[in-house]
Amino acid sequence: MICIVNFKSLMCYKKQLQWLHDIEQLPLNFKLLVAPTLPEHNTYQNYEIIAQNISLAQRTVGEMSANVLKALDIRYAFVGHLERRKLLNETTDIIHERLANCLNNDMIPIICLGMHSGPDLVIRELKSILKNIDFMGQRIIVAYESLRSTQSNSSAYSYVEMEAVYLKLNQYLSELVKNSNLASYSLVMGGHITAEGISVARKIGYDGVLIGDRYQEVSAFQPIIEALNQVKKER
Fold first, then answer.
1. Residue 235 and residue 232: Cα distance in Å, rounded?
2. Is 97 exposed, middle or buried (0-12, 13-18, 19+ CB in 10 A)?
3. Cα 174 to the chain's mean position, in Å?
4. Which of 61, 171, 222, 229 has its CA 20 to 30 A from that of 199?
5. What is the pLDDT of residues 169-205, one digit of tens each?
6. CB within 8 A of 164, min separation 6: which ones?
7. Where are the transmembrane segments (predicted)?
């Protein structure tokens, strides 16, 4: 199973470094991807450093370019994270450009969905991001966060909702694999995930979970580790 942890922007930098050090000392039987505020060189032994964002292809300021990320051996980048869309008014067109830049540089995008509730609206949201994209025979990760959970900062999702969205996304992406040059995909569940939420994600069929910056010490993250260690590490 995949676990993606995003430190976002308010977690103390020293705490981030301590977290990265402490987690490396533990046995992990799952694939862990960690997005610190400032990308580190991806040299850790039992997990990967990933990027919270990737710049547009053209010259810009204040964002990480694909060239810099690749120099740090980073292989994954978030595309269209909900905070960027809600707080920075990032449009679908901009997300589309970031996605193209990611794929053009042989990086794996983590496409974030959750601006709308309900499977049909979620699919419409994804289609608008993927419109006319060339997947170049590569893989993508699609992360769905429950809108209700993100708004309330609690595990407010329902099993019925998360399952309905999963089934719709899985059907749509399976068809893309058959009918386009998309190689493969993984579906990840987010929205204030707890150890119990991992069990829900597994039961529905999600390939992993997306977790924010709530667990600022590895000791607090331990229940998540224990729940994930019961799942076979992604091959």
1. 8
2. middle
3. 19
4. 171
5. 999 999 999 999 999 999 999 988 999 999 999 999 9
6. 118, 119
7. none
